[in-house]
Amino acid sequence: MLPMVGFSQLTKGSKEFSISLGLSVDNASYPFSREDKAFSMELPMRTGWLVKDNLSVGFYLSPSYSQIKMEGNMPFNREQETLLVTGGLYTRKYFSVGRFYPFLESNLLYSRGKFKLEENGGFGGNFKSESDIEIIQMNLMFGTLFKISDNFALEASFNPLVNVNYTSSGDVEGYGASISPSFNSLNIGVRFGL
Question: Which domains, from first to last, does the chain contain?
Answer without folding.
Answer: 2-28+35-192 (2.40.160)
